């Protein structure tokens, strides 16, 4: 029997081509660019408006109408004196007490009662009502940094208005996005610096205190082995008393008493600065992801 051969042919569809990775990257790049331009057109101005509203509140609390950017149109205000009772936080509550009257960032009057064995009754009591300027440098720096931030953000607002153009379309590009992002980062650094001025203590050295003019304005005068300092730490007004003692009494030859009082208006300022940092950081992250 004659054999028969059977031939089977099949037509398989062509193997699908693998995606072009370069094309996929280009698509992603185009999408990111489109998103970046959308952020510039719609999100930045809204964020700046919110940030400036909070900064405007800070300026009002700190009476910074004369320092802040005039484009904010902050109503001029006059500071009022506030009196704070500072109580000891180390050892006996009688070691140090102080009463300080502030006008904005100026000390108007300071009364101190500090434990001092050499004085009659064991306490040194004095009042300082200096005829020289006695500024709390940290509060002054806080105002300067916040004022600088208002100028930076108002300038950025004006830049956005310019880039928006008119009837013929806007001028937003990836380059303008990079520039705006850098400006936002610089603004964030300035706000962080402002925040740190009242959160981190900045103490004068003992040598600086010796030659600090208000130190010599206490009546009766400070004993030669006694120094008094005022500074801000964590939104608190702190009074520190330094007394030179024999090393047999204290290894470092220095006895330190401290008293403090919370400054509620600084707590409010910190809350607003935290909000500003939060909304600006969100915008920075959003823009960075589209670069």
UniProtKB/TrEMBL annotation:
<dbReference type="InterPro" id="IPR028241">
    <property type="entry name" value="RAVE2/Rogdi"/>
</dbReference>
<feature type="compositionally biased region" description="Polar residues">
    <location>
        <begin position="1"/>
        <end position="20"/>
    </location>
</feature>
<dbReference type="GO" id="GO:0043291">
    <property type="term" value="C:RAVE complex"/>
</dbReference>
<dbReference type="Pfam" id="PF10259">
    <property type="entry name" value="Rogdi_lz"/>
</dbReference>
<protein>
    <recommendedName>
        <fullName>Protein rogdi homolog</fullName>
    </recommendedName>
</protein>
<feature type="region of interest" description="Disordered">
    <location>
        <begin position="1"/>
        <end position="22"/>
    </location>
</feature>
<comment type="similarity">
    <text>Belongs to the rogdi family.</text>
</comment>
